[in-house]
Amino acid sequence: MKQTNTLITGADKGIGFETAKELGQRGQHILLGARNAQRGQAAIEKLRAAGVAADLILLDVTDQTTIDQAAQTIQDRWGYLTVLINNAGVALDHHEAPEKMPMAVIRADFDVNFFGAVAVAQTMIPLLRQGQPAKIINVSSNMGSLGLASDPKSRFYRANSLGYQSSKAALNMATISLSKALAPEITVNAVNPGYTATEFGGSWAGEQTVAEGAAKIVDLARDEAPRVTGQFVETAGQLPW
Ligand SMILES: NC(=O)c1ccc[n+]([C@@H]2O[C@H](COP(=O)([O-])OP(=O)(O)OC[C@H]3O[C@@H](n4cnc5c(N)ncnc54)[C@H](OP(=O)(O)O)[C@@H]3O)[C@@H](O)[C@H]2O)c1
User: What do the Gene Ontology cellular component annotations say (predicted)?
Assistant: First the structure.
């Protein structure tokens, strides 16, 4: 069996770090993506102390040069990727009304949550083909579900964060699009971690622990997971797109 090489973007803290720790403890080799070298190195040390085989990959998902350098490093050192987890994300809306939300904020949400994830996926596909059967897991959000946002019976009917929600809805469409293009060698799925207690979005304090937030991502990424593609899932089951 080839070693599973798992790249997780934005893994120096929060749900990404927890996912790295849990998959590493299941025997996967973790390529920990971080845009900041110091925070990334601190996370690597914590992982190694927890018995995880991990290497730092400096990667800002909004900077194609760093994405290309990351791919080159992975190519030179390991030659393939088995799992890509597009976890890096931002929520910059801060309760601004949609009719007033500055375009710069909406673009900044999209730069990380949509363009960043797609750029990393496109750049890593040749490495994932080398590691097939391989997986891309996009960390999305129930806030990006068009079905829930337009359903008066859903609690997400009242949520109205134009930049964040649109960027995650766009990421969901990228999931559908790539899943069709890459099947069956590479599966592509979107996961909602749920409202989780991280530093995400500044003042937000979620209801779940990071272990609960990471659970479905770990479930899909583990080596023994059934191969499904083109799905939008959470711990409780399937979500409407
Ligand atoms: N927490 C929730 O309630 C919740 C709910 C639904 C979905 N999600 C999704 O879960 C994912 C992880 O969120 P989290 O709660 O763990 O948030 P978090 O603790 O704020 O972590 C976000 C991670 O993304 C990284 N990041 C941000 N911009 C980046 C960039 N340009 N390039 C590379 N990395 C970048 C951050 O790096 P720095 O340390 O350098 O800032 C950090 O490592 C996100 O995609 C988020 O949308 C979270």
Answer: membrane
